Amino acid sequence: MVVRSVLTLVASLILIIGVLKERRLLMLPWLLVSAVSIGGWTVSAIVLPLGLASMDSASQGEGDGFGPLFILVVGIIMSMVVVVGTFMFLTPLSHYQVLSSLESLRHGIEAKSEGFRNANNGHDPTMIPLTDMEHA
C-alpha cells in the first residue's frame, strides 16, 4: 500500500512537470499507473459484491449475513469509484493527445519551412525583405 502511494505520488509529480513543460512523454508514468488502478477498481467492483453475496448465502441460517441492500450499496459505490476514476483518467489522456497533435504539427511545419528555405537559396519565403516592398 505504501509502495503504491509513493509510486502514485512520484507519477503525479512527473505528470505536473510534463503538463507545465508541455512534454507529453512525462505524462506516461501517471497514465500507466492510473490505467492499472482503474483496472484494479473494475475487478474489485465486480468481485467484492459477488464475494459478499456468496458469504451472505453461506451464512444464511446464522442470521449474521450482510443483506442484499448492503451488497447493492457496496456494488453501487464501487461502480461510482470506477466511473469517477475513468473520468479523472480521461482528462490527462486528452491533454496527452493534444500535445501529441501539436508536436506532429510542429514537426510538419519545421519540415515544410526547411523545404522552402532550401528551395529559395536559404531564404525563408514567408519573410519579405523591406527592400522588396513597393509603396502604392
Radius of gyration: 28 Å
Give the termini distance in whole angstroms.
75 Å
- Hey, roughly how much beta strand do the residues contain? under 5%
**Approximately how much helix is present in the residues?**
over 70%
Quickly count the domains.
1
Class from helix and strand fractions: mainly alpha
**Count the helices. How many?**
3
In one word, what is the shape? elongated
In short:
Pfam families: DUF4728 (PF15860). This protein has 136 residues and is mainly α. It is built from three helices and no strands.
Task: Write a structural description.
InterPro entries: DUF4728. With 136 residues, the protein is an all-alpha fold. It has one domain (2-122). The protein is 76% helix and 0% strand. It contains 3 helices and no strands. The protein has helices at 2-21, 28-58, 68-119. Helix 1 (2-21) runs antiparallel to helix 2 (28-58) and helix 2 (28-58) runs antiparallel to helix 3.
